[in-house]
Amino acid sequence: MENILDVNNLHVTFDTYGGKVQAVRGVNFSLKKGETLAIVGESGSGKSVTTKALMGLIKKPAGKIPEGEILFDGKDLAKLNEKQMQKIRGKDISMIFQDPMTSLNPTMKIGKQIMEGLILHQKKSKQEAKARALELLDLVGIPNPEKRLNQYPHQFSGGMRQRVVIAIALACNPKVLIADEPTTALDVTIQAQIIELMKDIQSKMDTSIIFITHDLGVVANVADRVAVMYAGKIVEIGTVDDVFYNPKHPYTWGLLGSMPTVDSTEEKLLAIPGTPPDLISPPKGDAFAARNEYALAIDFEEEPPMFKVSDTHYAATWLLHENAPEIEPPPAVKKRMAGIAGEEGSQS
Amino acid sequence: MAKYLIQRLIYMIITLFIIITATFFLMKIMPGSPFNNLGGKITEEQQALLEEKYGLDDPVPVQYFKYLTGIVRGDFGVSFQYENRPVTDMLLERIGPSAELGAQALIIGAVLGIILGMIAAIKHNTWIDYTSNIVAVIGISIPSFVFAGLLQYYLAVKWRLFPVSFWESPIHTVLPTIALMIFPMAICARFMRTEMLEVLGSDYIELARAKGVSNGSIMFKHALRNALIPVITVLGPMTVSLMTGTLVIEQIFAVPGIGEQFVSSINTNDYPVIMGTTILFAVLFVVVILIVDLLYGLIDPRIRITGGGKD
């Protein structure tokens, strides 16, 4: 299938009082038409910054894209100016935000907030935009759309607000939808509803979705492919099956190991020791080496390249080098992997 | 809404009653009588006669009761100093210049302050921001009569750009308006800058950007209204400080307004005029507060008085 988005060697930096933070340090991935790519990783790994770069929402002048390209529709988004990006944002690429309680304008009727993008990008008249807004509210499962259109955000519950945010994002039939932890701020029952809604919408609209999350359970449920980010880089990327059943990077092992499962029998959850590196002066070699119990001598010297595991599966760890010793994932992680398989089986 | 308004009206009447009562008794505590400062032009007998005529020989509670019944009938009494002129006439004649000066200063000051605050927020941490901050701090900390003096000295006396005083043509209103508007401008600028910065950093502004909305639309359609909410809150007390500010400014620029008359009526113990002016100020005050509260609801749907809650 054709790629709708190609990100090559993307770098994002932020100037701060402490120095230049290298938030994203050479990210490569592609997004195919109609697929869902999940980006996982702990806080500060650069997931959100990567997607903000795709939207052109990196705050200047502190934030910069010094290197790399974002190829979309024959254009390099990294090179476009603000005016050109405004024509793409909300029309071709749109975004669902994390916290629905704060991401809607409290003093604007939700109908107007949905219609704004339609009037702006599709040059629709007020009447046409309103008709489309009603359609969208219906699509995202908000009852009484006629009445709801004239209400303000404070008259909606959290889950309903997130549906409105999704309706805004979908308004112009975007080719790429970025969901930045869309369920983190919601309670668990609502989370499941929103996930179902997004899956449903994708099957209807054939949009490509980039789904940022740190909930691996959600990943297994929604994604086709997974990219694992650590310290501003993608360390492992592959299909859900590749990454969940055949993880190669020790960091992915750590993430899987620290994930609670329904039938966990151990007293304690496994945690990844240590803290992520300081991105003002990233360490030499593999950024994960200091926290990695399987680190090889070379991990402290040289950055590992992306090793190919299969046609769909790549990981950046020296353990995949032909001269590296054979290392199996820890038994606890293997058990978790079996656990996920069970959970996924029961969900579908 | 109607129920709310009626409720507010009752509160307003109670507030006014308390203000009238307090002012009346405080005024009576003031030493002297309206007729004892005529410089010995009248004898004590004449003074006693005058006091009897105006009911000033009655016990204070009786005077108070008489005054209240007068107000209810719409009779605010006559001035002791100006040939028995009714207080209502005197106030009506004088309210024009005061209202004009106050309204000009408030509107121009608030609008300029809001614009200044917005610019400072957009260009925050640049020299524009620092300049506007300094201007705001100066405007808040230096009282209006100091500006009045400086303006008169430089713009009127030295450079002869504007008349020094009096209230005859629009050009006469320039200096007093500037002197009076600096405070509201500074307050609005400070509030607006802080609020605007907070609003511009909020999630819903980011979402608007993500929709592809242009910077101008973000400012005026999304940010301005939200940033205005706290500014509206300070407009009420600010209007009050403008009212008291006019007292001084009118004196300095010889504006024939209520403030000037108020000050002279206090100096001469002209009881009906003191009371009338106080009541007028009090009424303006409570009405302004009501307007601010209604405006608040107009701008922020979350505190709108009518309309259903969550459903």
What labels describe this entry?
heterodimer; A: about 350 residues; alpha/beta; Rossmann fold; 2 domains; eight-stranded mixed sheet; four-stranded antiparallel sheet; 11 helices; 12 strands; about 35% helix; about 20% strand; B: about 300 residues; mainly alpha; MetI-like fold; about 75% helix; disordered C terminus; membrane (chain B); cell membrane (chain B); transmembrane (chain B); transport (chain B)
How are the SSEs ordered, and which strands pair?
The complex is a heterodimer of chains A (348) and B (311).
Chain A lengths: L2 E14 L2 E14 L3 E5 L6 H9 L7 E10 L2 E2 L5 H7 L4 E4 L13 H12 L4 H14 L5 H4 L9 H13 L5 E5 L7 H18 L2 E6 L2 H7 L2 E6 L2 E7 H6 L4 H8 L49 E2 L5 E2 L15 H17 L1
Parallel strand pairs in A: 3-8, 3-9, 6-7, 7-8
Antiparallel strand pairs in A: 1-2, 1-4, 4-5, 9-10, 10-12, 11-12
Chain B lengths: L1 H28 L14 H10 L6 H13 L14 H36 L4 H15 L2 H15 L15 H27 L2 H8 L4 H39 L4 H10 L3 H29 L12
